[in-house]
Amino acid sequence: MSAFLPQDDPNRADRDAALESARRKYTFNYTHISPLALVDSVPRVDEFSFSWLKLMGARVLTTIENETQLTRTSQFVEFLRSKHSWLSTLIVDGLELIGGLKGLVTDAIKLAGRHDATPDRPKSLDDYARLFRRIGLPPIARDYADDAAFAAMRVAGPNPVVLRAVDRLDDRFPLTDELFQEALPGDTLAAAAAEGRLFLADYHLLANAECGDYPDGQKYLHAPLAAFALDRATRRLRPVAIQCKQTPGPENPVFTPRDGYNWLIAKTIVEIADGNLHEAVTHLGLTHLLVEPFVVSTHRQLAPNHPLFLLLAPHFEGTLAINEASWRHLVADKGAVDKLLAGTINYSRGLAAHGLQAFSFAHSSLPVALAERGVADADRLPEYPYRDDALLHWEAIRDWVREYVALYYPADADVAADTELQAWGTEIGAATGGRINGVGRCGAVAEVVEALTRVIFTCSVQHAAVNFPQYDLMSYAPNMPLAGYAPAPSSRRGATEQDYLNLLPPLDMAELQMELGYMLGSVYYTQLGGYPAGHFRDPRVAEPLARFRARLADIGTTIAARNTGRRPYEYLLPTSIPQSINV
Asked: pLDDT-based confidence at 65, cuts 50/70/90?
């Protein structure tokens, strides 16, 4: 399809008719996850592709095999297992199975509705490892309890956007030098602050959490404060102290690495908070739900031959479908989120909505976000894999977008004259439209480039960074439980291994966390830069696209080299980044 701006299109009548048809198919709904803007119903063209269903179907079958090796109780499941190779062949080769395959995948997404496992308590950590049969046990199970692994989770984990540099700790966190030196002997809190080596992970957004009890009894979610410091000698990030709740007091002590099982419990309480914030806000709210209004308004306001529609459409493939599956099944009452996360389902949905409503698209560029948290400077925080790898992609996407946009908007006046672009920005930010703060009319070429860079980065790189750790880092429940099953300790002394096990999820919830983490964190459909052959008819696009793809290849080489000298961080290898949010 040839690309035209509306002011240049010789077939305006056809263009207007296409937009009118799209506006009938793509309408906003504000009740699916109130009050956020989602599509009312997913048009057929936006449903999951057969290629995607094949990939997910294979993961479903692996999950079934894993479960049969755990239970061996269902004749139906045993039948599926015995016919696995037969089913796989048909899934790959038999287009006539697409209807059945959709049902199989939907049933897997509705895993939440199934509750046939028993809520047994773990007798040891081995019970969690034994859940992994056909699904491989992630390497994190070997060293998750180490302080180095705990620190790495802040800069290379599923939620690498919480840690911030601080020049002091406020009154909520009365950390003394004596306690600080239990973690870093010979150092001082004042010196760490003065030298820019002090960092804080603050989960105050969870301070008023409404904790749930479905399906296995009372769950706990706290709002911890965790202090980290850069070790002068090694220049590595070290955890130095944790307070499990926001308000200090005798029954809310500050824990340090000298506190034995209480320290492990405190670290786990941080991981529980991080997991809840990750799933509701960083992942669901600020990737899936943030992008959906852009998808809807792109169809409603940009004609199919608009150059920006052509640029964005591949980055939106599968998003409406996976989001619908999420709100219909995962974040539904008694769904997987209700089971796994610590809050009630109303609280978790509300947390996602609040996170997106508090977000400003205008201030969401990666460099700005890093600077606002004081972690942009590699001299201050030398090892931050998410920052370092994501910035490579940010710059590559920005340059690709800039070259592409320049083909159609030589001057700011061309932006102002594009009525469809102006309607697009206005609708996305409107209370009667997409309800995304910080989006509006574009007045300059630079503003268009910045907005498109943010959208494409979120659809691809940011989502990859927060989605794919769900298997490697989150499917093994002790590393990042999604709920606590015992309250925070009120004393620094006396905790036992049994106290720690009491905090961890029962085995049925750990199994569900494993299954969903595996399915959602291991499906790689499409690849950044892999626009379909012939997608861009304009021959001028070929050279900038070739440069973008070459840049991505260079980024892959750079990241592979980095991984030889650090704890491997593979989520932002270009080969591991899909074009769109499709899982």
From this structure: confident
Please check whether residue 182 is in contact with residue 258, taking contact to mean a CB–CB distance below 8 angstroms. yes
Cα–Cα dist 503/272, whole Å: 10
Task: Provide the Cα torsion 306, 310, 316, 320; round to 10°.
Answer: 50
Could you tell me the end-to-end alpha-carbon distance of the chain, in angstroms, rounded to an integer?
28
pLDDT of residue 116: 52
Whether 289 contacts 33, CB under 8 Å: yes
Sheet with 164-165: strands ordered across: 164-165, 198-202, 225-230, 237-243, 254-255
Cα–Cα distance for residue pair 50/4, rounded to 1 Å: 31
Question: Cα separations (Å) of 241 from 64, 253, 269, 276, 495?
Answer: 42, 10, 13, 21, 17
pLDDT at residue 457 is higher than 70: yes
**Would you give the distance in Å from CA 128 to the centre of its chain?**
24
- pLDDT tens readout for residues 244-255: 999 999 999 999
Domains observed in the chain: 1-138+281-583 (1.20.245.10)
Distance, in Å, from the CA atom of 166 to the CA atom of 150, rounded to the nearest integer, reads 19
Bridge partner list, 226: 201, 242
Which neighbouring-strand residues pair with 552? none
What b/e readout covers 196-215, taking b as 16+ CB neighbours within 10 angstroms? Answer: bbbbbbbbebbeebebbeee
Distance between CA atoms of residues 561 and 466, nearest Å: 22
Instruction: Count how many Cα atoms sit within 13 Å of the Cα of residue 256 in the half-sphere of its side chain.
Output: 16
* pLDDT tens digits, one per residue of 221-249: 999 999 999 999 999 999 999 999 999 99
Residue 98 pLDDT class (50, 70, 90 cuts): very low
Q: Are the C-beta atoms of 458 and 482 separated by less than 8 Å? A: no
| pTM exceeds cut of 0.85 | yes
Q: Which residues pair with 239 in a beta bridge?
A: 228
